[in-house]
């Protein structure tokens, strides 16, 4: 989203329009207080009136200072406008559609941009190699300002990567690997620094666990993240409970964000209520802070103008839409984002994974036998009720979880297409498709477990020690 008054207001979400009106109102008051020239004040007032009109046209209500609109993107507390509306927020993903969330609608409601063929081709030209299969298959499907990141890269200007993990349990599942697999690829092809935030403070605030347990989970999850193969010389992993107390730059950015976001705004964005603890209300600023390079002076040599690119699942976007709205007001560049789809539960795409349900996914601690049993017993099928019907009518890849998992983890495009054609035609049975998935997942998880065994506490400590990385700024 451009910051200029000539920005296409129709492309903005209700909350973004609200923020623009608020920002313009502050500008008008500042001009008047500073006794600016009359024509400058008049131009600012005209812009304010135009913004207010756009806000009323979009939301059907007059702008009221301090009262942001109920964000249609989030549909907080399950109060959807329509029966078939998807519920998507940082803590819940619900849809009544067996195919999963309607991501085209979500793009429109979030006000992000679709990752189209032109952008994928541009990425390919920039890096000089075939794009990751997550991009080719639409697993990362939406973005904010990726074109600006490519502009910077093509002009030899630096950027960095930021992603994270909320350590809610000791064992991670294969769905948790998706952002880290993609982030590792981005780091390698663009050769840039990476910071990984472990939000153990968030999990303590939201879950029934002690601070000590949250921190323990963070360090255990760090081992799984490191086992993805990140370069220790280019990657800094940090626990909020650790790093926040040692970095003045990090805390200063948190305070700046906190000052520029009101209680009403976070209630509108995240659905907080008067009964929520104040820790929850202030937490979004902590997730925003790593978007700014000045939060890591040891990496960026104190520079505060290095743009950040955040690969994440789209349910995390509300945090960073808030961050992007605040960034210009605190003199920071807006972070860019790449959004992924949700990884489906074994039982179907209606909900996302639950670390508390061992049968909802394949966990990184599962044995080959457990993987086989879970897939055979729990993976939702798009096949027919009988073999005869399946042979005649074929299976439905759009709802079949085994095929969905293969789109994430089977890298061979030709093999995936063959499976799709065979299953859709009825040539391939559900049991045979599940067998392919079992044979794909067993070695993948086993290889991860072997790499994790090599990650010692000392290696974790090295990754999590604030330090200069292998880049000059």
Automatic annotation (TrEMBL):
Enzyme Commission identifier(s): 6.1.1.2
Domain of life: Eukaryota
Keywords: Aminoacyl-tRNA synthetase, ATP-binding, Ligase, Nucleotide-binding, Phosphoprotein, Protein biosynthesis
GO molecular function per UniProt: ATP binding; tryptophan-tRNA ligase activity
CDD domains registered for this protein in UniProt: TrpRS_core (cd00806), WEPRS_RNA (cd00936)
One GO biological process term: tryptophanyl-tRNA aminoacylation
EC primary class: ligase
One term under GO cellular component: cytoplasm
Pfam family, one: tRNA-synt_1b
Ranges of residues in domain WHEP-TRS: 13-69
Protein name as it appears in the record: Tryptophan--tRNA ligase, cytoplasmic
Family: Belongs to the class-I aminoacyl-tRNA synthetase family.
